[in-house]
Design goal:
Elements lengths: L1 E4 L15 E6 L3 E6 L4 E5 H6 L24 E7 L2 E6 L4 E6 H6 L13 E3 L10 E2 H6 L1 H14 L1 E5 L7 H6 L5 E2 L7 E3 L15 E4 L11 E9 L6 E5 H11 L1 H9 L2 E7 L3 E7 L2 E3 L5 E4 L13 H18 L5 E4 L6 E5 L3 E5 L7 E8 L1 H13 L2
Parallel strand pairs: 9-10
Antiparallel strand pairs: 1-8, 2-3, 3-4, 5-6, 6-7, 10-21, 11-23, 12-23, 13-22, 14-21, 14-23, 15-20, 15-22, 16-17, 18-19
């Protein structure tokens, strides 16, 4: 199903037999360590004192002091024995023993990543779609862990045999985290209504989009649970926004720069109850240039306010993004039937649906935050 992975240093140090300490040198400000592998790293005295492992709360890992409470230290004594380095800081005469594995895992420079590199996908994964079984996930932590990892890495997950009782979608969230309450409530209904306040509440087709780009922060996860589907259409469509963004980066770098740099204002107005507004680039990147989020919703995007010299180029880039997000080669498509549920990363995977004319279609949805899902994955892994 994967077409590629974003190739960046994961920053996760793997401890091998080559991470022992071969030698050290130091002055009053810097400790230099040469590891058995031949790699050399330097550690600043104030950084060492600030990060001594004994300065962390044993149960929670929180630092027990503030940097401002420490004097400006220098190294008064350093000794190397085997795979350990004992360091004494002059002003408070604090001595701490640093192990080779700890020093190696904190060596500089090192790129930090708290989550694995996302696996990118496109329409080639259509035939590999699989639904996990709800009762199995509830009874097997191993199966739940595998399903949650798929959501984290691919940006979506599918579930079946979920009871079609109203509000069951909330119970699915409780398996790994907490429901994100919004002005729509903890739960919202997706069905055709006589006087719809949103296109989602009609039978019209809906193009690819992310939900709630006018919020800060944007809900990280969205769940949709099918209770009824007797429609003659209404197929669900998903697109990996990260894959599309990387395609633009590789083939159209100027467009990528515009889309990841210039801010767009989004707004949702419901008189008397909500006036939500947020500003962000359509493609968001972190300090390492990695794509971390997309905000794409033409319904709530406000008029662009760019200088005239970039307006035409931005519209060209905007149209390019929209075209690539709607290419059949980019999307997977399936029909949700009663008892089936999908969950997806609302900052990565764009969703839409085809139109329908006849028959009822009723989904219940809710939002959740990604940090609770990622947290629970780590908790499950620590218990292995």
């Amino acid at each position: 199903m994967a077409i590629a992975s974003i190739t960046h240093d994961t920053g996760i140090a793997s401890i091998t037999h080559d991470t022992g300490i071969a030698s050290i040198t130091h002055d009053t400000e810097w400790l230099q360590v040469t590891f058995s592998s031949g790699e050399t790293s330097k550690f600043y005295v104030q950084w060492l004192r600030d990060n001594i492992p004994s300065g962390r709360h044993q149960d929670r890992g929180q630092r027990t002091f503030d940097i401002n409470s420490l004097p400006q230290h220098s190294l008064s004594e350093v000794t190397h024995t085997g795979d350990q380095v004992a360091v004494t800081f002059d002003l408070d005469q604090c001595t701490h023993v640093f192990t080779a594995s700890w020093l190696h895992s904190h060596r500089n420079p090192i790129t930090l990543r708290t989550n694995p590199t996302p696996v990118l996908w496109n329409a080639e994964g259509q035939n590999e779609l699989s639904f996990a079984d709800y009762s199995t996930l509830k009874s097997s932590r191993k199966s739940l862990h595998s399903w949650l990892r798929h959501i984290r890495d691919y940006g979506y997950g599918l579930l079946e045999n979920v009871p079609t009782e109203p509000e069951t979608v909330l119970e699915v969230v409780e398996m790994f985290g907490y429901v994100r309450d919004t002005n729509y409530g903890k739960l919202f209904e997706v069905r055709a209504e006589p006087n719809p306040s949103n296109l989602a509440f009609t039978k019209l087709g809906i193009g690819m989009h992310t939900d709630n780009p006018y919020r800060d922060p944007v809900p990280g996860l969205q769940l949709l649970h099918c209770l009824v589907n007797e429609s003659d259409g209404g197929e669900t469509q998903l697109v990996d926004g990260f894959a599309v963004a990387e395609k633009i980066r590789q083939k159209y770098p100027e467009a990528f720069w515009l889309l990841s740099t210039l801010p767009v204002r989004f707004r949702y107005l419901d008189e008397g109850s909500a006036d939500l507004e947020a500003t962000s680039s359509l493609i968001e990147t972190n300090s390492h240039g990695e794509v971390i989020a997309l905000r794409y919703n033409s319904r709530s995007a406000q008029a662009f306010t760019f200088p005239s010299e970039v307006m035409a180029d931005y519209y060209a880039a905007y149209r390019l993004l929209g075209e690539l997000l709607h290419e059949p080669e980019a999307r997977i498509e399936f029909r949700l039937t009663p008892g089936q549920l999908m969950i997806f990363d609302n900052q990565r995977v764009l969703h839409g649906r085809s139109s329908y004319e006849e028959g009822s279609r009723h989904l219940q949805g809710c939002y959740a935050d990604k940090d609770s899902l990622r947290s629970f994955i780590r908790v499950l892994e620590e218990k292995k």
